[in-house]
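note to self: dont lose this again. the chain is below, predicted strucutre after it. 333 aa total, dont forget to put it in the shared folder this time
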Amino acid sequence: MANSQSLAVGIIANPAAGKDIRRLVAQGRFVTNQEKVNILRRVLAGIESVGVRRVVFMPDMSGLGHGSLDGSVKSLSVEFVDILVTNKEVDSTRAAEAMQDEGVGCLVTLGGDGTNRAVAKGAGDIPIVPISTGTNNVFPQMMEGTVAGIAAGVVASGGVDVDAVTRRSTVMEVSIDGTVRDIALVDVAVSTHQFIGARALWDIDTITELFLARTDADAIGLSAIGARLRPSDGSEHSAVHVTIGPGGETVNAPIAPGVVTTVPVSAWNPMAVGEAVDIGLRPCTIALDGERALSVGVEQSAQVALRDSGPLVVDVERAIREATRLGAFRGGS
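---
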């Protein structure tokens, strides 16, 4: 594969993913840091197997990257980006930004929707292979680390056409008083809580509106509410704006692992790319991909718009199938 010696795979593993309050109020799985290290070791083995020789890690206070270097992958040159480690989501954003300057051709992430949102804000056009280790996961997928590493390796090395094996995600863009403040990859939730407090949002009774970029039929979390109204068939954008409350219909949806509840929906409408909708409730807090992140005051205005400017995501199966078609895994006699 051309330039496999110089191109690199980046790895951003969030040690805090999957450890919020939803561990206590739902039946979500708990992925230990040791298991994350084991996943990383498998990712490294997959990367090495396709001839990539550089890996660039995000440093973290739990030492996930260092812990994965057990000597089993001897041909890899491993580096860590030079960022100030704060143990906050901004680490993932800064690491992704730094990896753009490091020749990273593909990024592997370990985390949930929140981790990938932080990465997306800094990754630019670096394709992402998102491995699920968080709580309510819609954006990242459950996949074997070895296979994820192989897919990332063939993309990073130029062994497959990036355009043929990736898709551009949509995002919900949140503006306050006309200024873009943040994005969400999956869901924006408007809450009656007036203070951010505990960041994880889990009580459906406090939510008045949902803006859902994804409505996968098999989703867990708030986006499952939209999936009961307008499930995505994977061929087109399926974003919806949902108003929670009496006066309409109800849907049964799995809003957290092990938690299926009846949700009253007073109204809902599809959202098109480029469409912007004003948030009605003020004051309020706004949760992005399951965590309260923004506060809106009584005198402020807030708006949510659907954009098609989200991160590039690798279709792992398609990438490996295309690499196979091109003979990437075959040797001479």
